[in-house]
From TrEMBL:
Keyword Cytoplasm in record: yes
InterPro entries per UniProt: aa-tRNA-synth_I_CS, aa-tRNA-synth_Ic, Rossmann-like_a/b/a_fold, Trp-tRNA-ligase, Trp-tRNA-ligase_bac-type, Trp-tRNA_synthetase
Motif ('KMSKS' region): 197-201
Pfam name, any one: tRNA-synt_1b
Residues the entry annotates as binding L-tryptophan: D133
Protein's job: Catalyzes the attachment of tryptophan to tRNA(Trp).
Keywords tagged on the record: Aminoacyl-tRNA synthetase, ATP-binding, Cytoplasm, Ligase, Nucleotide-binding, Protein biosynthesis
Subunit text: Homodimer.
'HIGH' region, short sequence motif: residues: 10-18
Family indicated by similarity: Belongs to the class-I aminoacyl-tRNA synthetase family.
Species in which this protein is naturally found: Sinimarinibacterium thermocellulolyticum
Subcellular location: Cytoplasm
Protein name per UniProt: Tryptophan--tRNA ligase
Length: 333
């Protein structure tokens, strides 16, 4: 079976953006792929984390993966730091990635302008660790939101470069992965600032819909979302960013097309439209929230999932790392 891999940083709280851009699209993939989904704690520490919160987030996010419908029997769920091959391959790939390439990464430019007092080497080489995450599993496809596209292009470049340097053309060491980006929902924007993406590290909670927001909070946040003075419901990101974002949310959450949404709500003011968006989000999150508490409280169960996940992930990752070491000329222990 072909392989899919993706991951999320366990910081802040999971948002509707993470769900519609990533997790929701992961759910059906196990039927056609071997699926690996990580919590990337090593990526999270590229900005300062409180250890107590980081530990809590790892369990919270794992429980949410499962509550969203990722069944650990059909998907390998694991924590990045439990599989040492990630750090080991990242070192190797650091030596095959150029300073100039990393300097051009927009996520690095954003984060280094936000965290000016801590522009550490890990933040700079963040995309290299991500390339290691993906290439270790020989992933064919990587289901992510739009903001990860540039990192995936770098991953492909590094894979091709390493293959060219160390492998025969018909026996590549790394599979060159394809991004898998959903047609709607790949870029959910902030409710108050619809020109910026919705982010789990946002300090303004009214800008963000969290997976664990109670229904009345969701309704309130959507009713107060920024729109514009008109009453037209049409998809126009440049002229109507707020309305377009709510249309994307409704389309991705309900499976409806943007056209049918425009046809139903255009010209009627925003009240009825916003109610429909809120209803669709509440309906999407209700089953997740209903399952969450029980999953989260079963700490032994969660730890079993992670032990099993780490074992299955390591088996695949170690095989790739061994081939890389051999290709490099590292001698066996
Ligand atoms: P992270 O933790 O920022 O986000 C996790 C996933 O959610 C998607 N996403 C969004 N999609 C739509 N709208 C939004 N507003 C939105 N915000 C986030 C992201 O695109 C992502 O798919 N570098 C990655 C984590 C990572 C990874 C990997 C991903 C590390 N190693 C290997 C794939 C494969 C990140 O920071 O995601």
């Amino acid at each position: 079976k072909p392989v899919v891999l993706s991951g999320i940083q366990p910081s802040g709280h999971l948002t509707l953006g993470n769900y519609l851009g990533a997790i929701k699209n992961w759910l059906p993939l196990h039927e056609r792929y071997d699926c690996y989904y990580m919590l990337v704690d090593m990526h999270a520490i590229t900005v300062r984390q409180d250890p107590v919160l980081l530990r809590e987030r790892c369990y919270e996010f794992l429980a949410l993966y499962i509550a969203c419908g990722l069944d650990p029997r059909h998907n390998v769920l694991f924590v990045q730091s439990h599989v040492p091959a990630h750090a080991r391959l990242a070192w190797v790939l650091n030596c095959y990635t150029q300073f100039g390439e990393l300097s051009r990464m927009t996520q690095f430019k954003d984060k280094s302008s936000k965290h000016v007092d801590n522009i550490n080497a890990g933040l700079f080489s963040y995309p290299v660790l991500m390339a290691a995450d993906i290439l270790l599993y020989q992933a064919d496809a990587v289901p992510v939101g739009d903001d990860q596209k540039q990192h995936l292009e770098l991953t492909r470049d590094v894979a091709i470069r390493f293959n060219n340097a160390h492998a025969e053309p018909d026996k590549p060491i790394f599979t060159v992965p394809e991004p898998m980006i959903p047609p709607v929902g790949a870029r959910i924007m902030g409710l108050q600032e619809p020109t910026k993406k919705m982010s789990k590290s946002d300090d303004a909670p009214t800008n963000v819909l969290y997976l664990l927001d109670p229904p009345d909070t969701i309704v309130r946040k959507i009713k107060r979302a920024v729109t514009d003075p008109g009453n037209e419901v049409r998809f126009d990101v440049a002229e109507k960013p707020g309305v377009s974002n709510l249309m994307s949310i409704l389309a991705a959450a309900s499976g409806r097309s943007l056209e049918s949404i425009a046809a139903e709500y255009d010209g009627q003011g925003y009240g009825k439209f916003k109610q429909a968006v809120a209803d669709a989000v509440v309906a999407t999150l209700e089953p997740v929230q209903a399952r969450y508490r029980d999953v989260r409280d079963d700490i032994q169960g969660l730890r079993r999932v992670l032990r099993d996940g780490a074992e299955r992930a390591s088996a695949r990752a170690d095989a790739t790392l061994a081939r890389v070491h051999e290709a490099l000329g590292f001698i066996p222990a």
